[in-house]
Amino acid sequence: MRKISIIALSGLSTLSVAFASSAYSGDLSSICQYFEVSDEAATLGLSLYVLGFAIGPLLRAPMSEAFGRIIVFLVTFSLFTIFNIAAAISANFASVVIFRALAGMFGSAPLTNSGGVVADLYSAETRGLAAVFYSCATFLGLFWAPLRADFSARLKDGDGDVLLRRRAVMLSMKTGKLYVTSVDHRNPPGSLAERFQVSTTRPLHLLSKEPIVVVLALYMSFLYGTTYLLLAALPIVFQRVRGWSPGMGGLAFVPIAIGMLFATAFMVFINRQYTRKFRASETGQLPPEARLPSGKVGAALIPIGLFLFAWANDPSIHWAVCMVGTAFFGFGNICVTLALVNYLVDSCSIFLKHD
């Protein structure tokens, strides 16, 4: 039950960050009108928020290894909340953009470190199911937020090594004897600066030495960027081109959420198959590639969905065709993301525990 509550809190915190990222795009026309800026300038509030997602993790992962996840979560999420409030009460557009960028930078901690929490708490056999519900919260937050925006025009420490080191220090103080963890006995942690340097350079090492990491990082970056492009495109297609009201235009995000919910059910089924194969394995483990079958389905549905959405933009074509396309995209998005994330966790679990 404790594990479930931790995963639930991680999912909710990630949902909040995703919600704040896409809520901005729910009614861009109001932002343009209120601040008297162009459509292109208005999208800076969304673009720079996502840019913060790229900058924040460069420091967030090493800090979680040195100080534990709970401190990083509490500090960064507090700053994330403060900067979002500042953006909401800003009197000019420049302040909105700056505070949105800072909010994205500090809000990236749940998006990046929560995956490490899942890897810490669950074994390879059960990790997939936990990741399904965690990722579902992440993506549903992206597409629920614009709908909500249109119509309204305690976390436990998951870093095992840090926790064990604290217990060893407490035992040493109580007994007068020296206690160390088994991990530190085999591999002394070194100074804080050394650990920080290792954690900072490790992602660069993986990107430079592991071609598969480079390819998957580029593909997932493209997919994530396309997701936010779709968030910005839906209000234009349905409100400006088709003439829907902001409230009705927000309903265009519903098919994506429906597709993601169906994908979640599909991934639960896929994970059960994985579990059966895992238990039947003679070696007691499966290769990381066993996580990829669902990704093949998603990789086919994503371009099909985007083609349907782009082809059916004209008002002469029924709006339902557009929405079927976005539902396919939502389904494929979940399938691909979960497959690749679980693949990377299984392949690099010794590193991903902290990164």
TrEMBL record:
Main location: membrane
Coiled-coil segments: none
GO molecular function annotations of the record: transmembrane transporter activity
Database matches in InterPro entries: MFS, MFS_dom, MFS_trans_sf
Topology versus the membrane: Multi-pass membrane protein
Any Pfam family the entry gives: MFS_1
Alphabetized SUPFAM superfamilies for the sequence: MFS general substrate transporter (SSF103473)
Cell compartment(s), UniProt: Cell membrane
A GO-annotated cellular component: plasma membrane
Family listed: Belongs to the major facilitator superfamily. DHA1 family. Polyamines/proton antiporter (TC 2.A.1.2.16) subfamily.
Name this protein carries in UniProt: Major facilitator superfamily domain-containing protein
Species name: Aspergillus caelatus
Taxon lineage: Eukaryota, Fungi, Dikarya, Ascomycota, Pezizomycotina
